[in-house]
Each structure stands twice: as C-alpha cells, then as structure tokens.
From TrEMBL:
One Pfam family it belongs to: Pur_DNA_glyco
Protein name, UniProt field: Putative 3-methyladenine DNA glycosylase
Coiled coil: none
CDD domains tied to this protein: AAG
EC number in record: 3.2.2.-
Keyword DNA damage: yes
InterPro entries, A to Z: Formyl_transferase-like_C_sf, MPG, MPG_sf
DNA sequence: CTACAGATGTACT
DNA sequence: GTACATCTGTAGA
C-alpha cells in the first residue's frame, strides 16, 4: 500500500509525467472488489504540437477534460467498442495527457480473470492494451473526469514503487508524421504485459531523466 | 506470427 | 455520408 501520487508530478510536462507514471498503481472499485494494476506502459500526448492527440484540432465536448487540471481521468470511447483511459497532465487550460496502455495485476487474480474472461487464464493478457486495461478496471464514460488523486474517488492513482532509469525503455510512435519521432511511448523493460505490437524500437538511452 | 472482422461514437467533408 | 486520433478477438498458417 502506498500514498496517492503527488499532483505536482503531473503538472510540468507530459514526458516527465509519463516517466513518473511508470510503476504507479491504478486501483478501481468493481463488483468483484478492488482491482489494482502497476502501470508498465504509457504514452504521452500533448494537444498543441501532437497531430496524434485528440486535442490537436482544439477543444470539443469529447476531449474537454483533457484541457482541465492534472490528475483527472480522460476516458473516451473508440471504434464503437472500446474505452481507453488517459491521466490528464499539465495546467488547467493546457491540453495534455498520458494514455495508460498496459499494467500488471497486483490484486486478486481470480477476480481479475472473472472480469476479463477473454484473457483465457493468461495473466499477461489481463491488462495488455489500453482498452483491455479499461475493461479490467471497469472504466467507462462514467469514469470520465474522475479525480484519481482524491482518496474518495472510485478510481485512484497511487505512487507505487518508482521504476529505476535502467529499466525504462522508450520508443518512437508509429503512424505519426515525420519529425515527430520523440520517445513518447515508455514502458518497463522485461514486463510480459507490455503491448509488443507496432513495436517502436526499444531504446535504453532516453532523454535526460 | 499475420489478417481481418467486429459494431458503431466522434468529428470530419 | 467517411475516416478514424491512441483497438480487440478470433481464425488460420
């Protein structure tokens, strides 16, 4: 058990925020009890200069919370089927968020498998991928805008155990215009729960953290 | 591993 | 209408 993450860890810029979110623990109340995961893969988005961001074209009803204060959830529905969750970063009025892409289950595995039968008993598939992680934690449009740094919220973000620099890997994003190859995807080396597809090539030499 | 079908919100033309 | 801006599950090799 650990304390909630400090909100200031998300305030400065999306890349250091993403770096800090690795190793944090996201917990949600579900009918099967509290489900908790350790974040092992994240991806940073910043509205102003990222064509891949939902906010690149400005504020809409859908992406509104991404423009708000840090520490809230931005949950959106995609492809008519799936939910994905971001943790909002930066100052109120500035669009930025970190997409949570994968996690390792820390809570009861039986309950987790009951929530995600399509994992077919494979622990590594419980929360591998942003929509799977949302399904596991029960995050849907009801969770949009929730403050995960409020201890009374149904979804909470704990500081967890920081990941050493030596274990952090970064990769360029794919499908983004040339010149945007900044290491905005970060993951924990060696985790079996990281989405391997669209493999941005791993690099141990990140920016100067 | 690769391929593609899935069911349908959101923002665009 | 159409593409999709952050996909998943299943089938088949």
């Amino acid at each position: 058990m650990s304390d909630l993450l400090d909100r200031s860890a998300l305030a400065d810029d999306v890349l250091p925020a993403a770096r800090r979110l690795l190793g944090c623990e996201l917990a949600a109340d579900t009918p099967q009890g509290e489900v908790r995961v350790r974040l092992v893969e994240v991806e940073a988005y910043r509205g102003a200069d990222d064509p891949g961001s939902h906010c690149y074209r400005g504020k809409t009803a859908r992406n509104e919370v991404m423009w708000g204060p840090a520490g809230h959830l931005y949950v959106y529905f995609v492809y008519g089927m799936h939910f994905c969750a971001n943790i909002v970063c930066l100052q109120d009025g500035v669009a930025g968020a970190v997409l949570v892409r994968a996690g390792e289950v820390l809570s009861d595995l039986g309950a987790a498998h009951a929530r995600r039968p399509t994992a077919r008993g494979r622990d590594a598939e419980l929360a591998k991928g942003p929509a799977r992680l949302c399904a596991l934690l029960g995050l849907d449009k009801e969770a949009n805008g929730v403050d995960v740094l409020d201890p009374s919220s149904p979804v909470r973000l704990y500081a967890g155990t920081p990941v050493p620099d030596a274990d952090v890997r970064t990769g360029p994003r794919v499908g983004v215009a040339a010149g945007q190859e900044r290491p905005w995807r970060l993951w924990v080396a060696g985790s079996k729960t990281v989405t391997p597809y669209k493999a941005g090539r791993a690099r141990a030499d990140g920016p100067d953290w």
